[in-house]
Structures are given as structure tokens and as C-alpha cells.
What does this fold into?
Amino acid sequence: MDKKLDLPQESLFAQAFSLVVENSGAVAVREIPIELSARIEPLKRADVEADFLGRKLLILQQGHTLPLTVVLAGELLPGAKKRILLNGSIMAEPPFKVTYEVREEDRQHVLTSYVVERE
It folds into this structure.
């Protein structure tokens, strides 16, 4: 799911997309901590705000990444999937490429990413 909600005259570019979490293990998991971050190319003054589970917080401020750790609440049974709505807004002058990234808490490996490019 992907929806564009851009206001280019105000340098505001908004997104709405879903994060799908699947438990591929043999036991139930709960309270999963993940890290959400963003980066911009080319490096420039820009802000990226994430609206995740009802909280709006900056994950990129003036071009500097501010990783956000959130906990996916509840229990996820083996083989189950859970869809979580994620909204983002980018305040920047085009051209740019912003990459949203999701990682396990305190890990370098990127679990998934979403790219927004504007010319």
C-alpha cells in the first residue's frame, strides 16, 4: 500500500504505507523492539517525521538521522502476520532521495526499507 500526498509548493512530501511483520519462528513473540530511521541523498537540510502507532516524531532533523526505537506491542503467534500503518512526511527541496529503514533494535542489518524520490 502506497499513497502520495505531496504539496510541492510547500516542499512537503507525505507518504502512507504499511509495515508487515511476520513471525516465521516456532514460538510466539511479543513486544518486538524495532528501530526506524531515515537518510537523505544528496545530504541536505531536511526534516522527516514518522507517524508510527499514533506518535509523530522526527527521524531526520536538518539532514541528521535520529533513529526512533518503537515496540510493536502485543503477541504474534507462529506463522502469523501483523500489518502496521506508517505515515511519513518529508520537508525538503527536491531533488532528493529519502530512504526509510527498519532494523532490529541496536543492529546494523536493515530488515526492510522504503525509498521516496522527488525530482
